[in-house]
Specification:
Length: 100
Amino acid sequence: MRAVECAACGNQVLCEKFSVAHTSVQWTADAAVACAEFRDRVRPGATTARTLTCRALRASIDRAVEDGTLTVGTPDRGIPEAGSPAYGSPVVGTPEAVDV
């Protein structure tokens, strides 16, 4: 997992992407305290369990993928998936690498 910082509030989460569609996020702090968007959505005393995502954090994760800070790869080897920004780069040093 890689650390990604939200550009809006500065909260840091741990992320990994096993495909273009898959994003796993592990919060390192209580979302209702650390994230202004979560905090604004919950009533005092309510849970954040029904809040699916923070739009600002989602945008920060997308930027991390675009700039290469967070790569898209398979969970077992980290090999980029077709359609990911890193896919065009040759994979070196693995049995799956082929000359094109």
